[in-house]
């Protein structure tokens, strides 16, 4: 039996058109994606609501999933509608009310040359119960380690895509951040400006308004990021998009991460390790604690994903 400590309530997954018990082992050791990271994925959440489990912005996730597959030159053997229904089926089959959902397109078994000419694309979908990525204690304010490693540049790769192999860089930076006692990493881009976290976008708050950056700053323009921009505008909070320097970040009144896994989490402190030749600096953002704009947006976001704001019902897809 497989240990499911890190996958609570996961009992089934979807692979090659059918549901399998979680303990089934279905991938060959010579699967192309296992060796080269030739995969693309989505992180999606479903939330418990009064109307049953609702998946947040599922069509937008599916659209990006297929864009990413196109970037990876995959001829996907499924339609968007088929993937949508398979995702809902996995949630139902696991009996989940609130969960994290992971669909994965990958080049499968066939050959191990760099070009997967004999390794056809396939699809895996899993789901399990998962609370916030950083835990409830993160709501008291996280500490980010500014990594010396620069984010992959937008001139090197199509930044619209969530490619498995690219996240090796995220894993390395995340491990390094935790080795320095921080909760998460933060990348700069090649130009030396703030890019994003390993799996999160970054916002700063200044004089009551929020600011984030865009794809030209070497980020994935996340679906949660896009949602927060719209929510803030609806709440009358000024929004802007543009470059963010380290000084902008350290001089902000507040800062926060956004992402499907992390949701909306305040960043209260920094460890600046961006220059390996210089001593590290520890900096507080604002008062070194979560700020009112961040927490207002977080509350609004959590109400929306749980179906408590009818204005945003269009963002929710029922599982049943």
Kindly describe this structure:
The chain is α+β, with helices and mostly antiparallel strands and 320 residues long. The chain folds into two domains: 12-128, Aminotransferase class 4, branched-chain amino acid transferase, N-terminal domain (D-amino Acid Aminotransferase, Chain A, domain 1, 2-Layer Sandwich); 136-305, D-amino Acid Aminotransferase, Chain A, domain 2 (Alpha-Beta Barrel), CATH 3.20.10.10. It is built from seven helices and 16 strands. It has helices at 32-36, 58-71, 80-93, 167-179, 223-234, 246-250, 292-305; strands at residues 12-15, 18-21, 39-41, 44-47, 54-56, 99-107, 121-128, 142-150, 184-188, 201-206, 209-212, 239-241, 254-259, 263-272, 281-284, 316-318. Helix 5 links the parallel strand 11 (209-212) and strand 12. The longest helix has 14 residues, at 58-71. The radius of gyration is 20 Å and the shape is globular. The two termini are 30 Å apart.
Keyword list:
single chain, alpha+beta, globular, D-amino Acid Aminotransferase, Chain A, domain 1, 16 strands, eight-stranded mixed beta sheet, D-amino Acid Aminotransferase, Chain A, domain 2, 320 residues
């Amino acid at each position: 039996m497989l240990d499911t400590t890190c996958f609570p309530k996961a009992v089934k997954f979807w692979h090659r058109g059918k549901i399998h018990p979680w303990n089934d082992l279905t991938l060959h050791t010579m699967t192309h994606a296992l060796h080269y990271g030739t995969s693309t994925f989505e992180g999606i959440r479903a939330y418990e609501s009064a109307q049953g489990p609702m998946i947040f912005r599922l069509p937008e996730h599916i659209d990006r999933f297929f864009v990413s597959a196109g970037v990876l030159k995959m001829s996907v053997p499924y339609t968007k509608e088929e993937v949508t229904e398979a995702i809902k089926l996995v949630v139902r089959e696991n009996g989940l009310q609130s969960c994290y959902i992971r669909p994965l397109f990958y080049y499968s078994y066939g050959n191990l040359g760099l070009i997967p000419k004999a390794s056809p694309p396939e699809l895996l979908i899993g789901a399990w119960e998962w609370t916030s990525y950083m835990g409830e204690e993160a709501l008291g304010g996280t500490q980010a380690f500014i990594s010396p490693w620069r984010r992959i540049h937008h001139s090197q790769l199509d930044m619209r895509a969530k490619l498995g192999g690219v996240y090796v860089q995220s894993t390395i930076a995340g491990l390094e951040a935790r080795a320095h006692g921080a909760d998460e990493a933060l990348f700069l881009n090649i130009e030396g400006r703030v890019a994003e976290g390993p799996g999160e976008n970054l916002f700063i708050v200044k004089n009551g308004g929020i600011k984030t950056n865009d794809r030209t700053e070497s980020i994935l323009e996340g679906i949660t990021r896009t949602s927060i921009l719209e929510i803030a505008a609806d709440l009358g909070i000024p929004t802007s998009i543009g470059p963010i320097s380290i000084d902008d970040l350290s001089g902000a009144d507040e800062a926060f991460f956004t992402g499907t896994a992390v949701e909306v989490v305040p960043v209260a402190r920094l460890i600046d390790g961006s220059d390996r030749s210089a001593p590290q600096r520890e900096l507080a953002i604002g008062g070194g604690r979560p700020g009112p704009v961040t927490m207002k947006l977080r509350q609004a976001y959590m109400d929306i994903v749980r179906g408590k704001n009818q204005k945003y019902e269009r963002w929710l897809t029922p599982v049943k």
